[in-house]
Amino acid sequence: MAATSRLLPVELSKAGFITSKPECCPQALNSAVGLRRLLPSHSVQQQKVANNVAGCLPTSFWGKQLPGERKQVQVGRAPAPRLQAVSIRASSDGDKGTIAVAGGTGFIGSKLVEKLLNEGYKVKVLTRSADKAKSVFSGKSIEIAEPHQWNQALAGTTGVVNLVGTPIATRWNEEVKADIKASRIKTTKRLVDAINALPQNQRPKAFVSSSALGYYGISDTARFVEDSPSGNDYLAQVCREWEAAAKGVNGPRLVLVRTGIVLDKDGGALAKMIPLFQLFAGGPLGSGRQWFSWVHRDDLANLIIEALENPKYEGPVNGTAPNPVTLGEMCDKLGQALGRPSWLPVPEFAVRSLLGEGASTVLEGQRVLPKKAQDLGFTFKYPEISGALRAIVAS
Ligand SMILES: NC(=O)c1ccc[n+]([C@@H]2O[C@H](COP(=O)([O-])OP(=O)(O)OC[C@H]3O[C@@H](n4cnc5c(N)ncnc54)[C@H](OP(=O)(O)O)[C@@H]3O)[C@@H](O)[C@H]2O)c1
């Protein structure tokens, strides 16, 4: 392997865009020269490196979304019969009902399914692959439905959660961007059509559909709450369309969870950052001043369950911790939690050279606050980044 192909991932990993390649040599860590050498190169090698780096992107890549529709939540819905805001807490006989989770095999979904089962719900996992679901939930008592069974599986459920979407932490091209959009919007429409096709008395009472903080666009200065306007970039547009697709649901109470950067050990951004820090190579990408609106995976799963159960949840709800940090602070705190230093930032030009259009999602962020959840009394177990990281590292 050419020397440059090892240097670059390490350099970029400083932002937490960690490459998971432990072969990165320590000497490479402070070599901006290696990075420069790589930039002019093209082709397969560069593509590989870029993909490697992109795969390390913190979830701001996930998170950009689209212009808002807080009020559109109502507008987009068919005026037709809507169930009232009904609680789906346990009935008197203790039966909490069944929740269908599309995308339940993923990073967020697998934690949610575990919590739902612990809380006494029956769970149906809607997946493209029964084999994958069986392997993820080995030993767990769930029902599994592949796409041709989704319509039937949704009938009579108490609530439906939509967590589907192809990963966005990759180097974008037109094909990838089309897939990022289609995997979310088409699947959401598919779920909505299936719910709407059910007889009224068979429809779920609540539909909790994921969106992302990219809805708000990017800013170093603004504070975004649920009624803030949407941004103008690609991810903001994706999120608007994603939310608009969910708003087509007719009957269930709809909650749109604008999810932040989800942190836990076995997936998401941290799974890529931690190994890098352990190699003494963690540090922010770009200035480090960009906002990093994070949420612990436990809190997000609890928030989704609250959104299913509590009839006061309706429309957009920010799924972020109450105390966002800058990426620089995030890397400092992660370094502290791991007992490792946080390295110098990776220069912006390098990130832009590698990621092109997608770089802005890494180099810029947004400060998103969970106003609605807090107004409704939701308690975050991990409100501060230090506590969240300490818990994750210790787990
Ligand atoms: N993780 C974050 O930090 C974060 C931040 C903001 C927003 N979100 C959003 O939250 C949702 C869940 O995130 P996650 O981190 O749990 O994602 P994940 O681990 O990648 O899981 C997403 C699930 O979606 C399904 N899926 C993947 N590609 C698909 C495709 N092309 N077509 C249809 N289904 C596909 C997969 O389920 P099957 O293979 O079983 O079908 C997969 O398990 C996503 O919509 C994501 O955009 C996540």
TrEMBL record:
<protein>
    <submittedName>
        <fullName>Uncharacterized protein</fullName>
    </submittedName>
</protein>
<dbReference type="InterPro" id="IPR036291">
    <property type="entry name" value="NAD(P)-bd_dom_sf"/>
</dbReference>
<dbReference type="Pfam" id="PF08338">
    <property type="entry name" value="DUF1731"/>
</dbReference>
<dbReference type="Pfam" id="PF01370">
    <property type="entry name" value="Epimerase"/>
</dbReference>
<dbReference type="InterPro" id="IPR010099">
    <property type="entry name" value="SDR39U1"/>
</dbReference>
<dbReference type="InterPro" id="IPR001509">
    <property type="entry name" value="Epimerase_deHydtase"/>
</dbReference>
<feature type="domain" description="NAD-dependent epimerase/dehydratase">
    <location>
        <begin position="99"/>
        <end position="312"/>
    </location>
</feature>
<dbReference type="InterPro" id="IPR013549">
    <property type="entry name" value="DUF1731"/>
</dbReference>
<feature type="domain" description="DUF1731">
    <location>
        <begin position="346"/>
        <end position="392"/>
    </location>
</feature>
